[in-house]
Amino acid sequence: MEWKLAEARMDYARINMFHADHASHKKVIDLVKEYNTQSKDNTIAIMLDTKGSEIRSGDLPKPIMLNPGQEFTFTIERGVSTPSGVSVNYDDFGNDVEACDMLLLDGDMMSFMVKSKSKDCQM
């Protein structure tokens, strides 16, 4: 198979989940994974665009100022929002997120690298 975009140093495959069906998305994901196993010098990330603001953070008492590199916690435990972390309304968040994943928030205005996750689904 030809990998012209990948060989041109494509960084990620962005999949819009609002379009097509799961079977079509799976084909694209499988192709990217196949390329990643064959490539020795380039790895392509997979970015899924959901159809809207489905994963929401818990309410914050006031805005949080974050600095680059600052650690921040995401948890599925409801009502836990502090200056160092927020809750999310998606119970499978911990199953869908792995260490080294990149989380993009607020229309890609903020990005977070997942360092680790704990048994109680804190990232």
Written account of the structure:
The chain folds into two domains: 4-49, no CATH class; 53-123, M1 Pyruvate Kinase, Domain 3 (Beta Barrel). The chain is built from three helices and six strands; from the N terminus they run H-E-H-E-E-E-H-E-E. The strands form three sheets. Strands 1-2 form a two-stranded parallel sheet. The protein is elongated and about 50 Å long. It is of the alpha/beta class and 123 residues long.
How would the blueprint of this fold be written?
Elements: H1 4-7, E1 12-16, H2 22-38, E2 45-49, E3 73-75, E4 85-87, H3 93-96, E5 102-105, E6 110-113
Parallel strand pairs: 1-2, 3-4
Antiparallel strand pairs: 5-6
Give a summary of the structure in a few sentences.
InterPro entries: Pyr_Knase, Pyrv/PenolPyrv_kinase-like_dom, Pyrv_kinase-like_dom_sf, Pyrv_Knase-like_insert_dom_sf, Pyrv_Knase_brl. The chain is of the alpha/beta class and 123 residues long.
CATH superfamily of the largest domain: PK beta-barrel domain-like
Sheet of most strands: 2 strands, parallel
C-alpha geometry? elongated
- The CATH architecture of the largest domain can be named as Beta Barrel
Percent of residues in helices = 10-25%
Strand order of the largest sheet: 1-2
> What letter string, H or E per element, gives the SSE order?
HEHEEEHEE
What is the CA-atom radius of gyration, in angstroms?
Answer: 17 Å
* Overall mean pLDDT: 85
Low-confidence stretches: none
CATH class of the largest domain: Mainly Beta
- State the CATH topology of the largest domain: M1 Pyruvate Kinase, Domain 3
Tally of separate domains: 2
Termini separation (Å)?
Answer: 37 Å
Note the total helix count: 3
Percent of residues in β-strands: 15-25%
Q: How many strands?
A: 6
Structural class: alpha/beta
Pathway: Carbohydrate degradation; glycolysis; pyruvate from D-glyceraldehyde 3-phosphate: step 5/5
InterPro entries: Pyr_Knase (IPR001697), Pyrv/PenolPyrv_kinase-like_dom (IPR015813), Pyrv_kinase-like_dom_sf (IPR040442), Pyrv_Knase-like_insert_dom_sf (IPR011037), Pyrv_Knase_brl (IPR015793)
Pfam families: PK
GO molecular function: ATP binding; kinase activity; metal ion binding; pyruvate kinase activity
